[in-house]
Design brief:
The complex is a heterodimer of chains A (142) and B (202).
Chain A lengths: L1 H12 L9 E3 L2 E8 L7 E10 L5 E7 L3 E12 L2 E6 L3 E3 L4 E3 L5 E8 L8 E8 L5 E7 L1
Chain B lengths: L2 H19 L11 E8 L4 E4 L4 E3 L7 E7 L6 H16 L6 E7 L7 H11 L4 E4 L2 H10 L5 E4 L7 E6 L1 E5 L4 E7 L4 H13 L4
Parallel strand pairs in B: 4-5, 5-6
Antiparallel strand pairs in B: 1-10, 2-3, 2-6, 4-9, 7-8, 9-10
The chains are: A mainly beta (142), B alpha+beta (202).
Chain lengths: 142, 202
């Protein structure tokens, strides 16, 4: 925990921090966690990259964050210029594959933000999986 | 031996000339979807995030980028705004003549205060606009924006607003000239907007 804190402090001090470091959770390797600026009381988003080295499939089931009253999983679909966003119960992490959560697709959503998320700041979020142990990762506002 | 440098100079002049004129005397070819023929952008009469009345028709002389969205939209809307902030950075000095406007499609949740905090997170020059449901509906109709309020049972968000991801480009003369979508290459926007900034106001 102290090490994580040290990394966070170091990154915050660097002005425009680089991508968050890779974090291991069982067979999952999580990196490049980031999100957009958002206002206190509003809605935030976390995008990330997960490599599942296990021969078995895994899933993101949800999460929690001190920065939000609720963490949900959502997916955006776009059809002919029209964007729709709907909740989803889990995000699939196929075995031996890299899953990239990026704008315009599946994402982790923070509802009821406790604080305004400013560009360059680093926060933490805890993710829960079907198989892998829960893990707390840093994520950066870009 | 002396003929080649002269030929090279001529070639260089042609190449540079074409670059300046964009298409060697032909009309500029937009990378976005050109609105042809251009036609006057419908007026927008709403209130800005400072609480001041805003009329699009009073803004002539600047290139205006109009997008529709809402602040509880965590994905597409911030992508669009972050992209437009990056486009303004790449435009350098030309960005001074490009005004980005976010019109909320969710005026119930997006109060003036929320809009004021939100747009400034992306670029301090951005303007957020809102209106009552009648004023908002008029703008949506005039711009052909279909918005569907969709309840999200089981989500703390309560509801979402399905909405288009279009980006409207309006020239200095107030004409609707070009359209983009979220996710289009940013250099396409930079190139087209630079053209609109630099073209002589007609």
């Amino acid at each position: 925990m102290n090490r994580l804190l040290a990394i966070l402090v170091l990154m915050t001090a660097c002005g425009n921090p680089p991508a968050s470091p890779a974090i291991q959770a069982g067979d999952l390797r999580i990196q490049e966690a980031w999100g957009y600026p958002a206002v206190a009381g509003g809605t935030g988003v976390v995008f990330l990259t997960i490599d599942n080295a296990s021969p078995a499939p895994d899933r993101i089931l949800g999460g929690s964050s001190v920065q939000a009253t609720q963490v949900e999983l959502h997916a955006t679909t776009q059809a002919i210029d029209q964007a729709q966003m709907r909740p989803t119960s889990s995000i699939a992490l196929p075995p031996g594959r890299r899953t990239v959560l990026a704008p315009g697709g599946e994402h982790v959503m923070l509802i009821g933000l406790a604080t305004t998320l400013q560009r360059g700041q680093v926060y933490t979020i805890t993710l829960n999986f079907d198989r892998a142990p829960s893990v707390t990762i840093p994520w950066t506002i870009r | 031996m002396t003929r080649y440098p002269r030929l090279l100079g001529l070639l260089l002049a042609v190449v540079v000339g074409c670059g300046v004129l964009s298409a060697c005397g032909g009309p500029y070819v937009f990378r976005g979807r050109e609105v042809h023929p251009p036609f006057p952008a419908p007026d927008i009469a709403l209130t800005d995030h400072h609480g001041q009345p805003y009329r699009l028709h009073n803004q002539q002389g600047r290139v205006i980028i109009v997008v529709f969205g809402f602040t509880a939209c965590p994905d597409v809307c911030p992508t669009t705004l972050a992209d437009l902030a990056e486009v303004r950075r790449r435009l350098g000095d030309d960005a001074a003549d490009v005004q980005v406007i976010l019109i909320t499609v969710d005026p119930d949740r997006d109060t003036q205060a929320v809009l004021a905090s939100y747009v400034g997170l992306f670029d301090p020059s951005f303007i957020g606009l809102r209106g009552d449901s009648a004023a908002t509906a008029r703008v949506l109709r005039d711009y052909g924006v279909a918005v569907a309020k969709t309840e999200l049972p089981g989500s703390a968000l309560g509801y979402t607003m399905d909405h288009p991801t279009r980006i409207y480009g309006i020239d200095r003369g107030g004409s609707w000239r070009v359209m983009f979508s979220t996710g289009d290459p940013l250099d396409d926007l930079v190139r087209d907007l630079r053209y609109l900034v630099q073209e002589r106001a007609e």
